Protein 1
Amino acid sequence: MATDSPLFTWQGQVLQLVGAPAVWEPQHRTLLVADLHLGKAETFQAHGIPLPSDGDGSTLNALLDLAHRWQPQQVVVLGDLIHSRLGLTAELRAKLDALPELLGCPLRLIGGNHDHGSWIAGLSQEPSQALGPWWLSHQPEPRAGFLNLCGHLHPVAVVGRGADRLRLPCFSYCMRQERLALPAFGRLTGGHPCSQRDQIWLVADGAVVEWTQAAPSNTPTA
């Protein structure tokens, strides 16, 4: 078992947290990722905001590396594969068309809010659904009797204080809602701090580390 991929156990069922970041579901040999936001740079460029157009290449290469390592039977994106219809250029459409063959397995998409209204040949937007004991959705969608695996939240944790603070992507487990939120996979995505009540695993340099969040403090730091 890879040392950078800790196990997450829920009611006797096991998932593996991968620092790509992704979730490996061993029973169905499924890789789960969320929030690639492909075409984001082109979307911003269409609004006159200059962003470099190299983010998609690094994001897709990371996904291919992940698939080659784990050899999944399917890759499931938990929403927001693209950032908007404006970013769906002919070049990006061609890359998405070739992606399943390059992955070596089917690519599936649980439709997200950013995917809404777009059309990608050969890739339908599927509704939220069960995969064994897991409920797959884009936005948080607690479901009785399931653990909800979702994207949308782009969870990050603030580590350190003052000038030494870092914002790191993380997996975030909310016991109250039985929800495990995946970090955003895309290289051009931001993040939102997760709840102090959540159990988290930091993602840094391709590794995943369980982390205990510090209690909130009102004491000023230098």
Note: The first helix runs from residue 40 to 46.
Protein 2
Amino acid sequence: MAVRSRALMPCAVVLASLVVAGCSVAEGSGLPPTAQPTPTIVASPTQASLKPATDCARSTVSLTTASETDGVQLTLSTDPSGTSLLVKNTGSLSVVVIPDANFSSHLVAAPYANPQDQASRAALIAVNNSGAKLPGIPKYVPLTQVINVPPQWSVCALTDDVKHTATVRYLQDKPSSAEYFVTKALADQLIVRSGSSSEETRPALIRCAKTTLAVLKKFPKLSDIQVYVEILSRSTCRAGYKALVGDTRATEQLEAAVIGRLGGAPRLLANSQLFTLTARP
């Protein structure tokens, strides 16, 4: 009997402490049976438990980079619900982004993912106010949902229902790229080097953005650098920045600096077709 009592001792200690549930009570021991403890199960979040994103600030889930055409590289990220899609242009050319064909997604600004310097912001404002026509964009898309995204800029796409995955379409647009290169190079000289404010430079930059469109349309076969020289020499553009810098010598120095900058700009390419991007992994 003594031997049997020693054999039961480990299990009795376990039952008393309720630490280990794997022991069984020996028949005839006189000890009551105890229930196995129920393991705690932590449920993983499901699509039903998630809420639609209200912006792309938490879009930290990386997706495959999009690069369907030369000069374009778009870094994509989403949130766990898939209802947001942050599109950041990490390529060398501008793209134009619009919602998906069903308009299940809508586009909003992503200021937390965009350049903050005055020159970049002034250049994009000029492009957006140039009145450019985009032949590759369907006419039924509202202008408020046609977003220019130059290099290093971003846009956010959102859906209002977790059943819908955030989706957009984009194309590489040659005039938009040329406009941004010209206005950014000018803004760097006028704002960064000359000390003009973004408000002061705005009319001049818009005039040069419009001139860019006119030159591209009139001289479609010119090389890139010839296009830039033609833009800067035209009175519609030149008068604007000359009024800011003053005398002829300062104007010529500015022009030389801008041309030098544009000489190293990425090569302009013809417009691409529309491509689709989605927040699906």
Note: The two ends are 66 Å apart (CA to CA).
